[in-house]
Amino acid sequence: MPAPLPSDQDARRTYESEVTVRRLGEVVMPVDVLVEFSDGTRITETWDGQYRWTRFRYQGEARIRRVVVDPERKLAFDVDPANNAWVEETGTARRAATKWSARWMFWLQNLLELHAVLG
């Protein structure tokens, strides 16, 4: 007996996603967490910051595309706002290319400084 053809509902994928947010410092403050999905849906969660980390779980037909901690930049105590976002990377490994190019530029700068000092 042949297998039944999949219906439109069977063709839809369901994603189970989780977001883990960590507090790196000692300051305990509530913070907003913006979660954006691939279908354009946005959810803003509020985390009280009492524990070192918290986890948010989602299930649906869209993948998580971006997560931003403190999207409105209300916290003036944040020492490093560069670590407040995660973006889904698609295509080639941009993070690896950025890492290696930054290392190359660092060593080139040191070499040129050494040449200037010795020359």
Quick structural summary:
By secondary structure, the chain is an alpha+beta fold. It is 24% helix and 32% strand. It has 2 domains: 10-88; 91-119.
Characterization of the model:
The mean pLDDT is 86. A hairpin with a 4-residue loop joins β2 (31-37) and β3. The protein folds into two domains: 10-88; 91-119. By secondary structure, the protein is an alpha+beta fold. 24% of the residues lie in helices and 32% in strands. It contains two helices and six strands; from the N terminus they run αββββββα. Strands 3-2-5-6 form a four-stranded antiparallel beta sheet, with no helix packed on it. A two-stranded antiparallel ribbon has the order 1-4. It is flat.
In whole angstroms, how far apart are the ends? 83 Å
- Overall shape: it is flat
What is the number of independent domains? 2
Radius of gyration: 22 Å
Biggest sheet details: 4 strands, antiparallel
Regions with pLDDT < 50 over 5+ consecutive residues? none
Q: Would you report the number of β strands?
A: 6
